[in-house]
Design brief:
The protein is of the alpha/beta class and 273 residues long. It contains 7 helices and 9 strands; from the N terminus they run H-E-E-E-E-H-H-E-E-H-E-H-E-H-E-H. A 5-stranded mixed beta barrel has the order 5-8-7-6-9. Helix 4 links the parallel strand 6 and strand 7.
């Protein structure tokens, strides 16, 4: 992709984006209910946006929602793009660079994830404090200087101020939170027990098939990032009959989405305060 490809998408969307919009949200599998809370919503199917990919995964509706959440202007991705769908990394992360051209300063990312940490349980919400990348790095290839430098720092990929504020707000809202390291995995097959043990040993607390490429590109563009995982399955489940099932994942994410929506709404409102 070249700069003109991103600019074409941004130019198409710009008339719909209210001036001063600073926050964009990527909603993962089963977590699209947050988009239903957006008021004065303009719904734009991905297929209508120049050069945008189209979501093919279950639980990803494939719409861009522009409106307000708890009075704060936002852009929300109702579904994302994955490497396992066959998209190259510039397509997986295409929307992030378009958001940057639209003036977005904060990217909120959410996902459904398997719990590698044995103290995590289905339905837990985990603030992402760091990540381990097992996907191709989306910055490989010619650098587009308009977005960021050739070598992008990842010392603090997830904004510490936003993490602190989320923990404070969670106390006010009575929402219990975990903290942990997210592992980005290619998928689409779920991990074997041996892979889960390995990833846990190297420091992973949760694993999923998305998010990390978006975060790398967002940081390359200078955005502040806040990430949250909904734990939808336990990788060390001791039930001999247990198998991973994508419908169970979506149901678990859907059950937790109300709590995540409340926290995201308050946290985003604090950015505009």
């Amino acid at each position: 992709m070249n700069l003109q490809d991103y600019q074409a998408a941004a130019d198409y969307l710009r008339p719909f984006v209210p001036e001063g919009t600073k926050v964009a949200i990527t909603l993962g599998s089963g977590l699209g209910k947050l988009a239903d809370r957006i008021e004065n919503a303009k719904v734009i199917p991905y297929k209508d946006i120049p050069n945008f990919p189209v979501s093919t995964s279950v639980g990803h509706k494939g719409n861009l929602i522009i409106g307000t959440l708890d009075g704060a202007p936002v852009i929300a991705m109702q579904g994302r793009f994955h490497y396992y769908e066959g998209y190259p990394m510039d397509k997986v992360t295409f929307h992030v660079r378009v958001f940057h051209l639209l003036g977005i300063e904060y990217l909120f990312v959410s996902n459904a994830a398997g719990g590698l940490n044995t103290s995590f349980h289905v339905g837990d919400l985990m603030i992402i404090t760091d990540h381990i990348n097992w996907l191709p790095n989306p910055l490989i290839g010619p650098n587009i200087d308009a977005f960021g430098p050739r070598f992008s720092d990842m010392t603090r990929p997830y904004d510490r101020g936003l993490i602190h504020e989320a923990e404070r707000l969670s106390g006010e809202l009575g929402i219990s939170l975990q903290r942990g390291v997210y592992v980005g995995w290619t998928g689409p097959s779920y991990e074997t027990p041996a892979e889960c043990r390995m990833l846990s040993l190297i420091g992973g607390d949760a694993i999923g098939m998305s998010t990390v490429p978006e975060v790398i590109v967002a940081r390359h563009c200078g955005m502040h990032v806040f990430g949250m995982s909904c734990i939808t399955n336990e990788c060390f489940n001791n039930d001999p009959e247990y198998v991973n099932d994508e419908n169970d994942v979506i149901r678990a994410a859907d059950a937790a989405s109300d709590r995540m929506t409340k926290l995201f709404g308050r946290l985003i409102a604090s950015i505009y305060a």
